[in-house]
Amino acid sequence: MRKLIFLLLNLPVWLTAQGTTYTIKSYKDEGVKAPNTHYLGEAWLSHVLEADDTLDYNITKATFKANATLDWHKHVTPQVLIVVDGEGCYQERGKDPVRIKEGDVVRCEPNVEHWHTSSKKMM
Q1: Secondary structure of 32-63 in the HEC alphabet?
Q2: Where are the domains of the chain?
Q3: CA 13 vs CA 3, 20, 60: distances in Å
Q4: Cupin type-2 domain spans which residues (predicted)?
Q5: Which stretch of DSSP H or E encloses residue 72?
Q6: Closest Cα partner for 91 from 121, 112, 119, 120?
Q7: Computed from CA positions of residues 113, 97, 59, 55, in that sequence, does the dihedral angle turn out positive or negative?
Q8: Are the C-beta atoms of 14 and 2 separated by less than 8 Å?
Q9: Of 19, 69, 84, 96, which one's alpha carbon is 20 to 30 angstroms from that of 63?
Q10: Per-residue b/e over 89-123, b at no fewer than 16 CB within 10 Å?
Q11: Cα dihedral sign for 46, 92, 55, 14?
Q12: pLDDT value of position 27
């Protein structure tokens, strides 16, 4: 009798768990080629997560091919660069450029003009 009660109590959980769908995206997807409006070279954008009613930020993976550069630009919200592979440069207007490499995280404050690039020789 205990087994029957156990199965009946858990049946609603099993029914809802089996019907649940998830939206799963991979940051490993290269995405779509970015328009060359602010880029020199090749850059690819993958919109991993997009803002909605419950999430107030976007996560976009940008893949820069060797020697690709995004020219001077700024954002109205903070931007966080997380270097997951390779190396490049980052510079804010009025400051010296810095080398960025795999594992580095850079926070750019709102309305701060900056640019970033990949190195000429990618790993």
Answers
A1: EECCCCCEECCEEEEEEECCCCCCCCCEEEEE
A2: 32-118
A3: 16, 11, 35
A4: 63-117
A5: strand 69-73
A6: 112
A7: negative
A8: no
A9: 96
A10: ebebeeeeeeebeeeeeeebeeeeebbbbbbeeee
A11: positive
A12: 78
pLDDT in 10s for each residue of the chain, 123 residues:
444 444 444 445 445 555 678 878 887 888 888 877 777 888 888 888 888 999 888 888 888 888 888 889 999 999 999 998 899 999 999 999 999 999 999 999 999 999 999 988 754
Distance, CA of 89 to CA of 106 (rounded, Å) = 11
Longest dimension (CA), the chain: 76
3 state DSSP class of 101 = strand
Q: pTM for the whole thing? A: 0.72
Q: Which residues contact 20 (CB under 8 A, 6 or more apart)?
A: none
**With contact defined as beta carbons under 8 Å apart, do 115 and 67 qualify?**
no
